[in-house]
Amino acid sequence: MNEFDLVFAWSETTGHLWSMIQFWVSISFGLIVVAHIAAQKLNIVLVSTMILLYSFVSIFIGSLIIADGDILQAVYLDAQKLVDAKEATSATISALANYQKKEQFGGFFMALALPVTFFSTIAYFIYSYRKSS
Questions:
Q1: Cα 34 to chain center, whole Å?
Q2: Which of 76, 99, 116, 123 is deepest in the core (most CB within 10 A)?
Q3: Cα(35)–Cα(44) distance, integer angstroms
Q4: Cβ neighbour number for residue 31 with a 10 Å cutoff
Q5: Average of pLDDT values for 18-45?
Q6: Looking at residue 78, what DSSP letter applies?
């Protein structure tokens, strides 16, 4: 891949990753709002169904996040290969190749925040249901 292709792949993949995370967080907060506002209307069938659907959506989004992470790893490796082969003509590729080495907090944060959000959302949903019944 040439430099343009690498930068374009990085941009598209990070954009997709961000969109997936925003979509999933919106669903999570929507479920929390439902649990808070409509707690008196919830029954065991509705709670079970919503938790099951939320779990399926979360697994699907998680698989997309993992796939995007794999694509980004490949982009970083390809950028490093261009730098190592001295074929990189711009500082952007060098920065992209070094980004993976510097960017540790974001991956750690996502690996921690997403499961905590998932389990907290389910726990609050169950708590709201039990509190209201």
A1: 22
A2: 76
A3: 13
A4: 19
A5: 94
A6: H
Q: How far apart (Å, rounded) are the C-alpha atoms in residues 59 and 49?
A: 15
Q: Check: CB of residue 118 under 8 Å from CB of residue 58.
A: yes
pTM over 0.70: yes
Cβ partners under 8 Å of residue 27, min gap 6: 54, 57
Q: Which residues contact 85 (CB under 8 A, 6 or more apart)?
A: none
Question: What is the total residue count of the chain?
Answer: 133
pLDDT for 49-78, tens place per residue?
Answer: 999 999 999 999 999 999 998 999 899 889
Identify whether the C-beta of residue 71 lies closer than 8 Å to the C-beta of residue 9.
Answer: yes
| Beta carbons within 8 Å of 75's beta carbon, 6+ residues apart | 6, 9, 10, 13, 96
Task: Give the burial class of 94: count Cβ atoms within 10 A of its Cβ; 0-12 exposed, 13-18 middle, 19 or more buried.
Answer: middle
Q: Position of tokens 């938790």?
A: 51
